[in-house]
Design brief:
Distance between the termini: 57 Å
Oligomer: single chain
Strand order of the largest sheet: 9-8-7-10-11-13-12
Radius of gyration: 18 Å
Bound molecules: S-adenosylmethionine
Structural class: alpha/beta
Length: about 280
């Protein structure tokens, strides 16, 4: 009998990715999505939501370093951080490595993702009981609409713009994010692919360009998102990710990263020409 295979199909694309599965560790259906955790030889354990790869043990450090450390080293003093989504815990783990962070609120809609990650992905979920973390199981859209809290950095660690995450790519959500950001606040959001998700990426940047004075796009390269090259959108009320980046803060922090470093911070904002043609008009100089 052949090996059990998991095929990841991408909405609107006529190719797929195929993974050999050693073992299925968790398989559930929540009110929001299907949640699976499988063990593979090449990528270790993988979390899938609605059949799409969210994180893998092998390359999660790329995504989590880049969503967290780029804005946290751009902001002059990121004391309060809000994470929307991020149920596996990897983003919270990286945020909480920064001593300057006094409080991190994480708003994840799906308790099943959190519980399955606590049980099967301890290397990512290891900081979910951190004393500085307030974990709330609720809709991030409603949270930013209703909260009176003010944050220095907001990280939108969401699934693709389908199902409960679709409004996280909308204008009303970003107007509320703007409202709950402090004067020097920064938001970074999972920004999709310039190769395969052009429309979603362009829409996201056009929305933030109407709300925030500073907008940028930066890239990272992982193993499991289609095409490998993927982006984060950064928008801010003031701090610029290059002009206001004091790279000496990175070495002064004495933190070690597997992907992020000072040169990667600078380089990630250097966009290839096709990407500039696509979204350059929405980015601030
Ligand atoms: N790194 C991943 C990626 O880019 O594919 C994202 C991983 S994380 C598991 C995404 C999380 O966003 C999921 O657990 C999902 O439940 C959560 N999410 C989706 N919509 C949400 C919403 N409206 N409010 C809060 N969390 C949400």
């Amino acid at each position: 009998m052949g090996k059990k295979l998991f095929v990841e199909e991408f909405q609107g694309l006529d190719f797929s990715m195929k993974y050999g599965v050693e073992k299925t560790l968790f398989c559930g259906q929540s009110d929001f999505q299907s949640v699976d955790i499988v063990e593979t030889k090449t990528f270790g354990k993988m979390l899938l939501n609605d059949g799409l790869v969210m994180v893998t043990e092998r390359d999660e450090f790329v995504y989590h370093d880049m969503i967290a450390h780029v804005p946290l080293f751009t902001h002059p003093c990121p004391r309060k951080v809000l994470i929307i989504g991020g149920g596996d815990g990897g983003t919270a783990r990286e945020v909480l490595r920064h001593d300057v962070v006094e409080k991190c609120v994480m708003v994840e809609i799906d308790a099943m993702v959190v519980e399955a990650s606590r049980t099967h992905l301890p290397s990512m979920s290891c900081s979910l009981d951190h004393p500085k973390l307030e974990l709330r199981i609720e809709d991030g859209i409603k949270y930013v609409e209703e909260t009176d809290e003010v944050f220095d950095v907001v990280l939108v660690d969401s699934t693709d713009p389908i199902g409960p995450a679709a409004p996280l790519f909308g204008s009303a959500f970003y107007q509320n994010v703007y409202r709950c950001l402090a004067e020097t606040g920064i938001v970074v959001a999972q920004g999709e692919s310039s190769h395969y998700e052009k429309k979603s990426q362009e829409k996201l940047l056009s929305i933030v360009s109407e709300i925030f004075p500073v907008r940028a796009l930066y890239n990272y390269h992982n193993l499991t998102y289609p095409g490998g090259m993927w982006s984060f959108a950064l928008a801010s009320k003031g701090p610029h990710p290059l002009k206001d980046f004091d790279s000496s803060k990175v070495s002064a922090s004495r933190l070690n990263f597997r992907y992020y470093n000072e040169a990667v911070h600078w380089g990630a904002f250097a966009l290839p020409s096709f990407q500039k043609d696509l979204v350059g008009g929405y980015l601030s100089p």
